[in-house]
Amino acid sequence: MSNIVRLVIACVIMGAGVTLCGFGFWGWGIPVFLFGGMVLLTFFFNENMIIAQFFLRKENTEKAEQWLGKITDYEKQLHRKQHGYYNLLVGLIESRKAPLKSEKFFKKALTLGMGMSHNIALAKISLAGIAMAKRNKREAQMYLQEAAKDDKNKLLADQIKMMKAQMAQMDKQQVVRGGYRQF
Q1: Angle, nearest 10°, between helix axes 137-150 and 117-133?
Q2: Tens of pLDDT along 120-178?
Q3: Which run of H or of E encompasses 6?
């Protein structure tokens, strides 16, 4: 359902609630008005994305992918500020199947923008992991440094530390294999 349609339906339901209260039917008017407020919230927070996030937290990627699949055209169905989050969720799901193919979704999520700094840090950590898989150490270090700056609440500090340790391990493996460091 288009966002404009959701907005119109919410306004009609809330208007009906106000009208019922105006005619003295307070018992019906208040619940109808509150229901209209809930419909208005779906304008800003898409229910499919919320449910997909829930399943991602439960590590059930198949169901999360099903719920995200219900969003056919995210530019029309989602509020503009949700476009980055949609690409982040698609990238997280895709990274479990084919990690190197998920890079475009994380980059698009960063260009579209996200409101919460820890989500930006999560996208940059994922990009650092992809760069490490491609053996691009400089890019991985750049993304990890940016992720450390964006992680203001230190929610992802353990993951950043673990990735830096993996990069150090990667350096040691290169020295052992070739006898010298290759960049």
Answers
A1: 170
A2: 999 999 999 999 888 888 999 999 999 999 888 888 888 888 988 888 887 676 655 55
A3: helix 3-22
Residue of 2, 4, 5, 31 whose CA lies nearest to 17? 31
Pick from 110, 103, 55: which is nearest to 85 by CA?
A: 110
- Alpha helices by DSSP H, listed for 100-136, are 103-112, 117-133
What is the tens place of the pLDDT at every residue in 18-46?
999 999 999 999 999 999 999 998 888 88
End-to-end Cα separation, the chain, in angstroms:
50
Within 10 angstroms of residue 66's Cβ, the number of other Cβ atoms is 14
As a whole number of angstroms, the distance between CA 129 and CA 118 comes to 16
SS3 1: coil
**Burial (CB count <10 Å: 0-12, 13-18, 19+), residue 82:** buried
From 99, 173, 96, select the one nearest 137 (Cα to Cα): 173
Rounded Cα gap, residues 32 and 85, in angstroms:
31
Q: How far is it, in rounded angstroms, from Cα 176 to Cα 103?
A: 30
Residue 11 CA to residue 143 CA, distance in Å, equals 44
And the tokens for 134? Answer: 């491609």
DSSP string, 25-55: -HHHHHHHHHHHHHHHHHHHS-HHHHHHHHH
